[in-house]
Design a protein that fits this description.
heterodimer, A: mainly alpha, abc type-2 transporter like fold, 15 helices, 68% helix, elongated, B: Alpha-Beta Plaits, Rossmann fold, six-stranded mixed sheet
Chain lengths: 384, 658
């Protein structure tokens, strides 16, 4: 191990990266850009759903029923139609995503104590979305039914509204959302996006940095020189490690200052996890770069390897615990999941070292294993 | 391993010993049983076309590539593992193939050198000292801070050499260091390399694709298809195939070629000249053989010379009879294009890229049926000229007409009348020969009848029969090149543009290709504009223009150009002397400023052949250098190019000084 040679490789790499404008842009602009674009774009909250109504009853009770939907912040009223066929057209054009059809004699039947059925048509193109919508509809419908019952009880038994309510709904639920009181999806997404941006940018940068030398042939300078494998690998990674570390801090600032996500945990823990994760991510890039020959191949493979598991198995969109057992196992094979746990935990749950040390340990393990694999794959005397 | 000690004592000054070397890439055998020995202090040459196995061999010797069989010993160490390879690396400098590709474009000249020095742990003091000296020697010191990406080809090459030698290795392995560089830079490079090696007692293993560089090596191996065809000193190689080269003019040329081919294997037409290799070293015997073969045709301006190494290599290749395809091409029974009128006219063409003037007032004319060569180094502006004439690139200034159409306004009709073959043959490698031809015919909209007629014509013209259903990717380079030519001719164009069509093709393939070209020009009346950086090839052209830094610096027929230089500078003489380096110094002192070292030989110009010659001999012998031989040599086009460019540079320097 000779520090002068490591420094030579690292300095050269740093100069090249900083002077190549495209590379520089990629290094420092892509991660924040992803963060901003996805942070604003990947909002999973279901709100302001456009809907239309077909009121066949036109009674005061049917209007009262429909007003409850119109007044909700979850729905946007887009008008009422005269004909069921018009609903088909509107849904087909995605002008609306839901329609409510109130049958005729709605008021008459209800007042006579007979059950009625209100038809709701939901756009099922996005199942998660439709499920959430269904929940809203059921809740509003439930509230309406509950009121009917309460007023019926009050009327027939001569009870006060309070007591009537208690009888009508003996068990009530009190929900309190922990960690993310307003259930904002940005709060959950943005910390995970730090992971996502790093997971794609760091390996990409590292892989391109090494493959670039393979493609031009300058790697032969390394092969034919007395610089050792470890010296080269360390020197080569230092600049990318520094760039990635700067990026982590920038992304953290973006999350806290622009997206206003509260950071409740400990910054040292977050930083440690981030550095370990950067080591993993650059390690993945390094391994890819040792297996391919062209920058194009490196680009495609890195994007596939880095993106697909990250999106599917890291807990970015779907919690790991709700994946199938097979998928859960896969999730444990990628470092992204452990880091996502730490980042989300640090931001939202205020987790400290004692809660996250297993994740940190796992990340450290990955970093070491990936380095060893890279060292094993790298040879200064290749077959071709 | 056990025989190592014994082997070592055989030749104590042997630095590299390769025996039974085999390298495979998957199923392809790149090098097939090569033996080689490099001794201390020599420049050992590996010569051969692309794919002959030079690079694989050099990489294995440098310890950066594994091999499959045989043994490689460097400095007495058997290089058979990564660990063993690491042991030899401190004393090796390796320059991989590709001009400047191993350097770092974003770093400046100085930063590049520093990086290589730091990798090799050269001490700061040594580095500073060597850097100053090497930069001065290569005349790069003014550009210390210029990023490598903004250097010319010649400068990149010299920087590459500095970086490879900065740690003063015992053995320098240089893989095609001169490919794609202009002749002036090439000569410069050779003199720097020779000087450095001598001074530091280094040994060098150098590969090249230029046959005419063979004479610069102390010893060499000629590689062909992974095997060594011949090894030895240039002199030894030359004596292997005794013969002489007879050059003369005669008309009609086509008929003369047909007659000569019956008796001789190597017949080339160089413009109006014929160039024949006769298998006899006796000059009068050679004359006689030619006269007999020609019958009633009378040769004029006949001269007999010693064969060049390239002639020897071709003769050897032919002896091996690996190439049976030499000349099955039939004369073309093709209704020719009219011989009248100009096919290409360029008038003051200018092209700027930003503030950089790539082409500067270029004018020339090409007649129908003429082969016109545009010569110059990479980056001299040749390709830009072709692109403008093809209507692909708009000129900044000037005018041009191609096949009767104005290139500014009628780019569409130009494309119908011209054929274009680029450096990287634009063939579809996964299609067969027939499919490729039919595809190109389809692209040009030939109807069914025309297509099958044209197809047969191309197959015979390009000598492709027997290859019709072979996959293009499986074809040897030479055949692939002829197929590309055939595809460029599919729509029977009047004008053909060829952009460095012969890069990487072996000498026989190149000669065959030129044979087809001259037939196309002579018999079918096609006008051909060709670019090349092989100066030796340019001899085939009827007329030439030399481009340097975007300008045409000389033009005319090869014979005229040489005559003009002879008129201005005198005749060229070659000396073989005992101590070449010492001899060079004495010659320069005696007033022969243009004297230059060529391997072990010296070249210099004499204004007065008799008087100057004696003067040179006296100068050498008077200072104790024994002259082994001293005789006149025909000028090569490379000599012309170097002379012209040097004159220009000198004029520019004087202008700057004044």
């Amino acid at each position: 191990m000779n520090l002068r040679r490591i420094a030579a490789v690292a300095t050269k790499e740093w100069k090249e990266t900083v002077r190549d404008r495209l590379f520089l842009l990629m290094a420092f602009l892509l991660p924040p850009l992803w963060m901003v674009v996805f942070g604003h774009g990947l909002v999973l909250d279901v709100e302001h759903v456009p809907f239309a109504v077909l009121d066949r009853d036109q009674s005061s009770m049917s209007r009262d029923y429909l007003y409850r939907f119109m007044g909700s912040r979850y729905f946007d009223y887009r008008g009422s139609v005269k004909d069921a066929r018009e609903i088909d057209r509107l849904l087909g054009d995605t002008a609306i995503r839901m329609a409510i059809i109130v049958p005729d004699r709605f008021e008459e039947q209800l007042l006579a104590g007979r059950p009625v059925t209100v038809q709701t048509l939901l756009d099922g193109t996005f199942p998660l979305h439709a499920d959430t919508l269904k929940g809203y509809v059921i809740a509003i419908n439930h509230a309406f039914t509950q009121e009917l019952l309460t007023s019926f009880l009050a009327r027939t038994r001569g009870l006060g509204p309070e007591e009537a309510h208690r009888i009508a709904e003996p068990v009530s639920i009190e929900t309190r959302y922990l960690y993310n009181q307003e259930v904002r999806s940005t709060w959950s997404m943005v910390p995970a996006l730090i992971m996502f941006s790093m997971m794609v940018a760091s390996p990409l940068l590292t892989a391109l940095g090494v493959v670039r030398e393979k493609e031009t042939g300058s790697i032969y300078n390394i092969y034919s020189a007395t610089v050792s494998k470890a010296e080269f690998l360390i020197g080569k990674l230092v600049p990318y490690f520094v760039i990635s570390t700067i990026n982590v801090v920038v992304l953290w600032l973006l999350a806290v200052l622009i997206f206003r996500v509260p950071f409740k945990g400990s910054f040292p823990v977050f930083l440690t996890a981030s550095l370990l994760f950067v080591l993993c991510a650059t390690g993945i890039g390094l391994i890819i770069s040792l297996l391919v020959r062209t920058q194009m191949a490196a680009l495609i493979i890195t994007i596939i390897i880095a993106m697909v598991p990250t999106i599917l198995f890291s807990g970015l969109l779907v919690p790991v615990s709700s994946l199938s057992p097979g998928a859960q196992m896969q999730a444990h094979l990628f470092p992204a999941m452990y880091y996502t746990d730490v980042v989300r935990g640090s931001f939202l749950k205020g987790l400290e070292l004692e809660d996250t040390w297993t994740d940190l340990l796992a990340l450290g393990g990955f970093a070491v294993v990936l380095r060893l694999v890279a060292y094993g794959l790298f040879t200064k005397r290749p077959k071709a | 391993m056990e025989g190592k000690e014994a082997l070592q004592t055989q030749h104590s000054d042997t630095i590299v010993r390769v025996s039974g070397f085999v390298k495979r890439y998957k199923k392809d055998v790149a090098v097939d049983g090569v033996d080689l020995e490099v001794r201390r202090g020599e420049i050992y040459g590996l010569i051969g076309p692309d794919g002959s196995g030079k690079s694989s061999l050099m990489k294995a010797i440098a310890g950066v590539l594994t091999y499959d069989a045989g043994a490689v010993d460097v400095f007495g160490t058997r290089v058979d593992s990564e660990r063993a390879a690491e042991r030899i690396k401190p004393n090796i400098g390796f320059l991989p193939q590709g001009l400047g590709l191993n350097l770092y474009p974003e770093l400046s000249i100085e930063e590049n050198i520093d990086f290589f020095a730091q990798l090799r742990l050269v001490s700061d003091r040594d580095l500073a000292e060597r850097k100053t000296r090497l930069l001065a020697m290569t005349r790069l010191e003014r550009f210390r801070d210029r990023p490598m990406k903004n250097l010319s080809g010649g400068m990149k090459q010299k920087l590459g050499l500095i970086c490879t030698l900065i740690h003063e290795p015992d053995l320098a392995i240089l893989d095609e260091p001169t490919t794609g560089v202009d002749p002036v830079s090439r000569r410069d490079f050779w003199s720097i390399l020779t000087e450095l090696l001598q001074e530091k007692g280094m040994t060098a293993l150098v590969s090249t694709a230029y046959m005419d560089e063979a004479a610069r090596f102390h010893r060499l191996s000629f590689l062909s298809r992974g095997k060594v065809l011949v090894s030895g000193t240039p002199m030894e190689v030359q004596t292997l195939v005794p013969g002489s080269v007879v050059t003369f003019e005669t008309t009609p040329q086509v008929q003369a070629i047909a007659r000569l081919k019956q008796s001789f294997k190597q017949v080339e037409s160089l413009g109006p000249l014929l160039h024949v290799f006769t298998p006899t070293a006796d000059q009068s015997e050679a004359r006689l053989q030619i006269n007999t073969a020609l019958g009633d045709l009378v040769p004029t301006a006949l001269r007999v010379d010693e064969p060049e190494l390239e002639d020897v290599f071709v003769a050897l290749l032919l002896q091996k009879a690996e190439h049976k395809e030499t000349s099955d091409a039939q004369p073309t029974a093709e209704a020719g294009h009219g011989r009248d009128g100009l096919a290409i006219e360029a008038e003051g063409l200018i092209r700027d890229f930003g503030s950089f003037r790539a082409v500067d007032r270029v004018s020339f004319q090409v007649k129908q049926g003429e082969i016109f060569g545009l010569l110059g180094a990479n980056g001299a502006g040749k390709t830009t000229v072709i692109k403008m004439l093809n209507g692909i690139l708009l000129p900044t200034g000037g005018a041009g007409r191609v096949a009767g159409a104005d290139m500014r306004t009628a780019a569409g009709s130009i494309k119908e009348r011209i054929g274009y073959m680029s450096q990287a043959f634009s063939l579809y490698l996964d299609l067969t020969v027939e499919e490729n031809i039919r595809l190109f015919a389809g692209i040009y909209g030939l109807d069914k009848r025309a297509m099958s007629e044209r197809y047969r014509w191309i197959i015979t013209m390009a000598g492709l029969s027997g290859y019709e259903s072979s996959l293009t990717s499986r074809l040897p380079m030479g055949v692939r090149q002829r197929l590309a030519l055939g595809c460029a001719l599919v729509h029977n164009p009047r004008v053909l543009f060829l952009d460095e069509p012969t890069s990487g093709v072996d000498p026989i393939g190149r000669r065959h290709f030129w044979e087809i070209l001259s037939r196309l020009a002579r018999e079918a009346g096609v006008a051909i504009l060709i670019t090349t950086h092989y100066m030796s090839e340019a001899e085939h052209c009827d007329n030439l223009a030399l481009m340097y830094a975007g300008r045409i610096v000389a033009e005319g027929s090869p014979v005229d150009m040489k005559r003009q230089v002879e008129h201005e500078a005198g005749r060229l003489f070659e000396v073989v002397a005992e101590h070449p380096a010492k001899a060079l110094v004495h010659l320069r002192q005696a007033g022969f400023h243009r004297a230059a070292l060529f391997g072990t030989k010296l070249h210099f110009f004499c204004r007065d052949p008799v008087r100057d010659r004696d003067c040179a001999r006296h100068a050498l012998e008077g200072s104790g250098v024994r002259v082994i031989s001293l005789h006149e040599r025909p000028l090569s086009l490379e000599d012309v190019f170097v002379y012209r460019v040097m004159a220009l540079e000198q004029a520019a320097k004087q202008e700057a000084a004044a």
